[in-house]
Amino acid sequence: MSISLLLEMAASSNPDRTAAVSGEIRLSTSELSELADGGAGVIAASGAQHVAYVGTGGVMLPLLLFSSARAGVAFTPLNYRLSKDGLRQLIDRLPTPLVIADAEYHDVVAGAGKQVITSDEFIESARTAEPATEFPDPEDVGVVLFTSGTTSKPKAVELTHNNLTSYITGTVEFDGAEPGDAALICVPPYHIAGVSAALSNLYAGRKMVYLPQFDAGEWVRLVRDEGVTSATVVPTMLDRIVSVLERETIELPTLRNLAYGGSKVALPLVRKALGLLPEVGFVNAYGLTETSSTIAVLTPDDHREAASAADEAIARRLGSVGQPVPSIEVQIRGEDGTVLGPGQTGELFVRGEQVSGRYTDIGSVLDSEGWFPTKDIAMLDEGGYLFIGGRSDDTIIRGGENIAPAEIEDVLVEHPAVRDCAVVGPEDPEWGQIIVAVVVPAEGAAPDPDELRAHVRAQLRGSRTPDRVVFRDELPTNATGKVLRRELIDEFQRSRT
Amino acid sequence: MIKNGTRLQSQVCDTQVIVVRSADSLDDLRAGGVPMVPIDAEKSADATLDPAFSDGTVMGKRYVDENGAEVLVTKAGAGTLSIGTTPLNLKEAKPLPASD
């Protein structure tokens, strides 16, 4: 089915419900639907075959998602933080695009030989345009997202209407939200979570409250002023919110659910957040761009059970990503392709209708039976809880032994003098790669490298002990909290020469 | 076999559905006891709702049969969904917490 139908259902069932709020703009579901029809008219009249968006999001995200769908063309929100060259290179890879840009980014994309209009102009034109309503084929591509490209050239992930709507209808109950429920959306618009938030909250019947530029103080204010009941944050945002809550006593009485994801959240931070917000249900969501968002969820009950468990096997699940959603199958495979059993670590493969696994210019990377290789190292426990051990690309091979950085990071971050850390493997003439722990000390702490090494050695095999420990004020991350490991490796290598 | 993504309407009530997972059984999909037709097709003028199939459909719910067929109700109506004379079952989903 087409994503257009999700909006059609919401607008026909609850036309007057507030669908989206962003700054001064408030749209009901029927207003969003009418504006999307007009927006589709604007896109159709432009003759474009693709819509690109450069901006901070807000209501522009649901509006352009649905306008593009109704015009029968694919939509790509781009990372507005990229350089002029970076943005142009990505736009050049899209077929005859109409580029819509927030006013402050207009100059960055203008003059590159593409049709460019501002977000305000688009909304203005959409209000008066002749509506268009195409019904895209369910197998047509609805959204193309560029991967963050932290390790290689960004890949263009193609998500079909079917991928996206399968995710929504498979994991979200239509109109399942309580009347008055509101979701605070602060994930970037160019990230899969930004796209799925616009679809799932509309379908569930939650008011979408947008916070385009994240700020922890503003986040707290919006939760209180808009009566926010659920929110999703990436690790760096959670860290900043926790800092605010530690500084002053703040009640967030309406907040029932706080989901975190995007990249791994260190366990000490999860425990701190649970302690500060005992009434809130925490949700750890795991997914990839290629899987149309969430494929596994650690629920609020899972969090509570793990946090209070005496049984070590249950307690450990606080560091898992929970169980796969019902519409997803998972397999852990060894290097030789055999399917591994519980407790064994290998690469995660997933299958389901929400899984695309298809890239522009590359094609599908699904195997003959439809399985997608996530390139994530993973393990399932006896209860079917999924543990993610980082990217296989990040594996350090030291003296012929494979070492997953996550294993060492999980131990290091539990040391009281460590606030954050990343373990990387720069090249080394003797060992092939060595283990370097980059540590952000806890406030006021000055940890001794040898003590940190001893801390790791006491809990893991000797071959896991960092060869070097270096300190940094903070870790370089992208907007979704992913640590830029390449940067750390380059930095270390520069310091050695 | 009917294609996934096909939209159908009832001839005797307001019900509309979209085929989420097709199966041969859907060739005899009915609403209110009367065969469903494509959403842009003419409705039969003399068809009437069979009182034996008038339990109604629920907006946004998924209905399934034993052959793996699945349809999603995109507009609710007064008729019962059935394959021939066997009613479809409401697919009960365990609600997941909001994650995005």
Q: Features of this protein?
A:
heterodimer, A: 497 residues, alpha/beta, Rossmann fold, GMP Synthetase, Chain A, domain 3, 2 domains, 9-stranded mixed sheet, 16 helices, 32% helix, B: 100 residues, mainly beta, 6-stranded antiparallel sheet, 0% helix
Number of helices of chain A: 16
Structural class of chain B: mainly beta
Strand content of chain B: 25-35%
Q: Strand share of the residues of chain A?
A: 25-35%
Report on the structure:
The complex is a heterodimer of chains A (497) and B (100). With 497 residues, chain A is an alpha/beta fold. Chain A folds into two domains: 4-302, ANL, N-terminal domain (Rossmann fold); 395-496, ANL, C-terminal domain (GMP Synthetase, Chain A, domain 3), CATH 3.30.300.30. In chain A, 32% of the residues lie in helices and 26% in strands. In chain A, the strands form eight sheets. Chain A has a nine-stranded mixed sheet, with helices on both faces. The mean pLDDT of chain A is 95. Chain B is 0% helix and 32% strand. Chain B has no helices and ten strands. In chain B, strands 5-1-2-7-6-10 form a six-stranded antiparallel sheet, with no helix packed on it. In chain B, strand 6 (62-64) and strand 7 (70-75) form a beta hairpin. Chains A and B meet through helix 1, helix 7, helix 8, strand 13 and strand 14 of A and strand 7 of B.
